[in-house]
Every structure is written in C-alpha cells, then in structure tokens.
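Hey forum,

I'm writing up a methods section and want to include a predicted complex as supplementary material. The small molecule is NAP. I've pasted the protein sequence and the SMILES. Can someone with a working setup run it? I'll credit the forum in the acknowledgements.
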Amino acid sequence: MNMFDLTGKVAIITGSTRGIGNAIAKTMAAMGASVVITGRKQAACDTAAQALIDQGYNALGVACEVTKAEDRTNLIEKTVAKYGRVDILVNNAGLGGQPKKMIDMDEQYFDNYVDADLKGLYFMSQLAAQQMKAQGREGAENPYRIINLSSAAGIKAPIGDTVYGSCKAAVTHLTKIMANELARFGILCNAVAPGYVLTDMTKDVMADEKNVAAVTRMISVRRYAQPEEIASVISFLCTPAAGYITGVLIPVDGGMTIN
Ligand SMILES: NC(=O)c1ccc[n+]([C@@H]2O[C@H](COP(=O)([O-])OP(=O)(O)OC[C@H]3O[C@@H](n4cnc5c(N)ncnc54)[C@H](OP(=O)(O)O)[C@@H]3O)[C@@H](O)[C@H]2O)c1
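Reply by user p_vandermeer:
Happy to help. Structure tokens for the complex are below, copy them as they are.
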C-alpha cells in the first residue's frame, strides 16, 4: 500500500476556488482523490474544477455559501450523486483579514465571523459525519477524515482579532471534541493552524512593505508561507500514513507561535 496515496477517495474542500483551499484541491487531486471544489459562486467553482479536469483529474464544482443550511445540504447531496460517497471534508472556507478592535466592534461584524468561521464549519462537519456514518465503517483501516482550518491567531492573541482569533481557538477545541465523538464511526478529526500565508485574505496587509517587515520579524524562518505549504500538511493528514492521528492541532507557521 502506498501510504501517501488518496486514490479512490472523495474529498470536499470548502472555499477551494482560490487560496489555500485551491492548493489543497490541486494537491489531493494529484494524489488521486476526486475533489469537490466549492465557493460562493457556481461559475468560480466550475472554472476551478475544469482546470483540474483539463489535467486529467476528477473534479466537480458545487457552489456552497457555508453559512447557508440549504447550500451545505446541497453540497453533500451533489457530491454523493456524482461520486456515491464522502471520505474527506476539509473545512477551509472562512472569513478573515479585517482586524477590528473589540472596543469598536459592532454586532453584525461579530455575527459575520462567527457564522462563516465557526457555525458553518460546525454544521458542515455534522452533515459530513452523518453521511460517513451512514456509509459505514468500511474505512476502518483507512478512516474518514475531517480537517478544520484553525489559525495562529487562535493560538496567539493578536490585537484586533478578538472574533476571528476566538473562532479559530474554538475550532481547535471543537476538533478535539469531534475527534472523541466521531472516532467510533471511523472518522478522524484534526486541525491545522497556518501562520501567514500569501493569499487574497492577506494580500492587502502584505502590499505594505512595513507590514511585511513586521510580519516576517514574528516568524522564526523569516518568511511567510505559500498556500501549497499548508495544503501538503492537510493532504498528508488524509493519507493512510496519518491513520493514527486524531484530535490534534498542527501549527504550520514557520515557527510563528514559538517566537
Ligand atoms: N491566509 C492566511 O494567512 C491564513 C492564516 C491562518 C488561517 N487561514 C485560514 O485558511 C482558510 C483559507 O484562507 P485563505 O487565505 O485561502 O482565504 P482566501 O484566499 O480569502 O480564500 C477563501 C476561500 O473561501 C471561499 N469563501 C469565503 N467565504 C466563504 C463562505 N462564506 N462560504 C463559502 N466559501 C467561502 C472563497 O471563495 P469565493 O470567494 O469564490 O466564495 C475562497 O475560495 C481560512 O479558514 C482562513 O481563516 C488563512
């Protein structure tokens, strides 16, 4: 058995039209998985899926606003209709990049973050777990996987990230409880906490040289990450090689959270 192979696996990656999610979809497709690309607009999902199909991979685009219950249900249904099953869910979609101090924050801002970064992930996981449970424990030797995107902002306590950071810290704790609860159904749950990754989420901050200098000073390896460096760890967590890992948080941050 190739311990790093995903052939035959069906993976849903939320928020995979661009950024880290898209890098995860590309990596998993190259490792043999059939990938379901999601985002809020069907056209963007179709474009990203077609790019993989053009390379000979299996991909499907399904629009899903993770804050909407009907979209979450539709995502699972469309995946099962096309591929017959769900083996992997990566909860990657999220809102970030607009830090706001607690003292200035309004309730709408709070709700937007909690809905996208915590509630959507929670109920997306619930639906996937129900589907995996219904499929049975045929994955016992190579269990189903749910991977949640946390963040270094959920480990450190950056000013301006009260809501984002708290949601990401909650994601880490939720992952541990999910891991405990879902192990009996053959589902392993883990979280990954990126530090600074160059994507649309961070490009405005990183456009300013002063910010780049301040950010890189916080990182032991003195550079920020490319999306592929997060995708490789997440993809590894879904392989047979990681079949005995559950309930952990892996920081992928170039040493940011030990600095
Ligand atoms: N970039 C970083 O430095 C960093 C650091 C730590 C953690 N993270 C986490 O990593 C994950 C991905 O971040 P990223 O930097 O790749 O973000 P990004 O470049 O902004 O991409 C976000 C992706 O999620 C989708 N999306 C956004 N809101 C959504 C919603 N409500 N429902 C469904 N899809 C939605 C977007 O698709 P559409 O626009 O097409 O809908 C896009 O595909 C997030 O959970 C983020 O918190 C990122």
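Some notes you might quote in the supplement: The two ends are 39 Å apart (CA to CA). The chain has one domain: 10-258.
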